[in-house]
């Protein structure tokens, strides 16, 4: 049974979403502010977290920042309808997905299930080194959700890992944003182009923290991205 952490200062949302998720077979833990959630998630890590951005004491962005210091827990943000800056900032900080308020509970459920499927696809498999991908200094082990560059571990979220895998599988081959969305989210989930751009920027930053000369994820403006194996 997968465990979902819900973090929102609106108790009505917590109650209604909890009932819906529990009816679908999930175990749910709820928190009304970021500080409380940080303690609870640290003590008992869930399989996925749904975070509201606007909260007292510690907002969702600060909570995500602190979580990302220790964990690549799959995260979905709840954002206000008209605040695109929150969406972009959340994605740049490592959120896997976002949904605008007010939202359909059915849509949230489908996004949660889709993200958990992606997580299981990354972590699934029996042999530790099955399907190992080596591209020069890069090594990806999908069955262990492990990524290294020059032998040094690179912490990637589920979405970042799937994007990098899609690019590295065919070095030199250009993937447009629609193809990358399908690779990372599946064909049933719609996200806009900015979502992919934000994930790519964050992923590049992680590699450059290890290798300041990292230039292997290339942008072809107006076309898409490709992995340069050289």
In short:
The chain has 230 residues and is an alpha/beta fold. It is 43% helix and 20% strand.
**Strand order across the largest sheet:** 2-1-3-4-5
Mean pLDDT: 87
**Domain count:** 2
Strand content: 15-25%
Ends distance = 43 Å
CATH superfamily of the largest domain: Response regulator
- Principal-axis shape equals globular
Number of strands: 11
Helix content: 40-55%
The run of helices and strands is: EHEHEHEHEHEEEEHHHEE
CATH C-level class of the largest domain: Alpha Beta
Give the second-level CATH assignment, the architecture of the largest domain.
3-Layer(aba) Sandwich
Q: Which structural class do you get from the secondary structure elements? A: alpha/beta
Task: Extract low-pLDDT stretches.
Answer: none
Strand count, sense and barrel status of the largest sheet are:
5 strands, parallel
Q: Layout of helices and strands, plus pairs?
A:
Elements lengths: L2 E5 L3 H13 L3 E5 L2 H10 L4 E5 L7 H9 L6 E5 L4 H9 L4 E4 L4 H19 L9 E3 L2 E4 L4 E4 L2 E2 L4 H11 L8 H9 L7 H18 L6 E4 L3 E4 L3
Parallel strand pairs: 1-2, 1-3, 3-4, 4-5
Antiparallel strand pairs: 6-7, 7-8, 8-9, 10-11
Helix pairs in contact: 2-3, 4-8, 5-6, 6-7, 6-8
Q: Could you please describe the fold and organization of this structure?
A:
- With 230 residues, this protein is an alpha/beta fold.
- The protein has two domains: 3-123, Rossmann fold (3-Layer(aba) Sandwich), CATH 3.40.50.2300; 133-227, Arc Repressor Mutant, subunit A, CATH 1.10.10.
- Helices cover 43% and strands 20% of the residues.
- It has helices spanning 11-23, 34-43, 60-68, 84-92, 105-123, 158-168, 177-185, 193-210; strands at 3-7, 27-31, 48-52, 75-79, 97-100, 133-135, 138-141, 146-149, 152-153, 217-220, 224-227.
- The strands form three sheets. A five-stranded parallel beta sheet has the order 2-1-3-4-5, sandwiched between helices. It has a four-stranded antiparallel beta sheet with strand order 6-7-8-9, with helices on one face. Strands 10-11 form a two-stranded antiparallel sheet.
- Strand 10 (217-220) and strand 11 form a beta hairpin.
- The longest helix is centred in the middle third of the chain and has 19 residues, at 105-123.
- The chain is globular and about 55 Å long.
């Amino acid at each position: 049974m997968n465990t979902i952490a819900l973090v929102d200062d609106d108790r009505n949302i917590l109650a209604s979403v909890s009932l819906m998720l529990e009816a679908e077979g999930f175990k749910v833990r709820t928190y009304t502010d970021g500080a409380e959630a940080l303690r609870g998630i640290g003590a008992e890590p869930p399989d996925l977290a749904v975070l509201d951005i606007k909260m007292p004491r510690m907002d969702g962005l600060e909570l995500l920042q602190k979580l990302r210091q220790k964990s690549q827990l799959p995260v979905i943000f709840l954002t206000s309808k008209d605040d695109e800056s929150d969406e972009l900032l959340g994605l740049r900080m490592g959120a896997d997905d976002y949904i605008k308020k007010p939202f359909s509970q059915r849509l949230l459920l489908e996004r949660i299930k889709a993200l958990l499927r992606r997580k299981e696809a990354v972590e699934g498999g029996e042999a530790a080194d099955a399907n190992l991908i080596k591209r020069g200094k890069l090594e990806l082990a999908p069955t262990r959700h492990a990524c290294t560059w020059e032998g040094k571990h690179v912490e990637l979220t589920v979405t970042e890992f799937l994007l990098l895998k899609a690019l590295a599988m065919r070095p030199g081959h250009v993937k447009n944003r629609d193809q990358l969305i399908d690779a990372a989210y599946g064909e049933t989930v719609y996200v806009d182009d900015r979502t992919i751009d934000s994930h790519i920027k964050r992923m590049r930053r992680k590699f450059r923290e290890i290798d300041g000369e990292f230039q292997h994820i290339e942008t072809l403006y107006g076309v898409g991205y490709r992995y340069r194996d050289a």
